[in-house]
């Protein structure tokens, strides 16, 4: 069973930065894409950023220019660098991976990011 473990969340001030990590229990080459989602209280889960096998990435409009998704294949880890944080970025952030062969989705348990204004 594939496991995804998020780390790096916590409290940041508005305008500050945090870097989230998502480490997979298996090689991330087996995933067609990996991404970050977030869910704030009372809201639906939304896509934040996604990166595919060849390193192409896309972002939600709300984070473009502030967040950067990247991957380190040797470490089986995907990162989300979050800069110029806003209070609106406060959410539980989830890592998701889509298996390249089965197209199954795998999710991490989530990690809380709180941005204080």
Quick structural summary:
This protein has 117 residues and is mostly beta strands. It is 0% helix and 55% strand. It is globular.
User: How many helices does DSSP assign?
Assistant: 0
Roughly what fraction of the amino acids lie in strands?
over 45%
Helix content: under 10%
Query: What's the mean pLDDT score?
Result: 97
- Element-level helix/strand string: EEEEEEEEEEE
The CA-CA distance between the termini, in Å, is 40 Å
Low-confidence stretches: none
Structural class: mainly beta
Largest sheet: 7 strands, mixed
Which value, in Å, is the CA radius of gyration? 13 Å
Annotation, overall tally of beta strands: 11
**What sort of overall outline do the alpha carbons produce when their principal axes are compared?**
globular
